[in-house]
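Handout, tutorial session.
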Amino acid sequence: MTTGDYDNNGFADLVVSGTSVGNEPGYGWSYILPGTASHEKPLPITAVRGGPVVASGDINRDGYDDLVTGEPHSPDDGGENMTGGMVGVYYGSPDGPAGRKGPGSPPVCWTQNSAGVPGTNERGDGFGTDLSVGDSNGDGYAYVAIGVAGEDIGAVADAGAVTVLRGSAKGLTSTGALSVNQGTKNVPSTVEKGDKFGGQVSFTDPNGDGRFGLLVSAPGENTNDGYVWVFSAGRSGLTTSGSWTYSLSAFGGLRTDALYGAAIDD
């Protein structure tokens, strides 16, 4: 679930997402319940393609929240299961979330095959495993962090990665795209099979400076102990410099098989 004021009427709208079952299983759908001053009458519910992962924020700084959806195991047009995943963007408008041709149309879609996006779309990558939206450099344009927990790093299977795309006046852009994994310079730890780095992502601003850093988890780290990485942000956006990591043991817990970071509250 996520909330956002997609029509900029001053009331938060609720999005509930999931995947289809039956004859065409695996397709993501999201249901938008608009917020109003009164809930005495049944509210119209709008269904849009995309999910079960969702996040919200103002990507193009127009005052309308935008809806971002993730289908990490999206069936392709031919119905085959387990492609590399897809992320969709619906931009806010007076009529609510709007796709590439306006309200009621499909979203603006991003995959690892999109121009400028790091990586290559491969079955099982899980592009869109998790999503978070936040402004990392304080310019008012929100970034989108995309978990790619099934990404192979070299010959290491399911090591995982995170892709970060920037917001702009024209919407989400691959210009200046960032890809981070455990083999990236200044990132603690090493690339290992099954770590699933990027299993969860969450922008956070603990010091309240208006520049959101990023939490990234790898629930499979150290054979399912799980760890969380902390990346700082500044005027140039996110940086791996000074990044650090912690596990459940930092809080006095037993980390063995804890799957720490399997869920991060956004």
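The second record follows below. Compare its token runs with those of the first.
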Amino acid sequence: MSVTLPAAAQASIHKNPTLTMTPSGAPVNGVQKYTVKLTNNDDAAAGPSTFSVKPSLPAGLTQSPKWVSVSSVVPGSTVTFRISVSGRGSYAFSQTAVNTAAPAYTASATASFAA
């Protein structure tokens, strides 16, 4: 016996992830480090997902690494990674995480930079 779910039911296994970004300590020589946490909120039936995390930076800021790909994130789990942002002055910037298998499911986080 096989069961075919309607497209709406199939899509419901994916949910928007959660993304947070917090500074790690004080800036040093124009470089601020941030801790980024990504939580996969998909239903367990979705299985592991890969997320692409990319910044939106104003002119005057650079980031290392330029973007992050996090693979095999199991539903319900959280992964943590660090980024470094450099520049001079005060700015707001953001990161956006996209589920690469279901790009309609995204999350954004905003932080402040001052160095």
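Points raised in discussion: The two ends are 63 Å apart (CA to CA).
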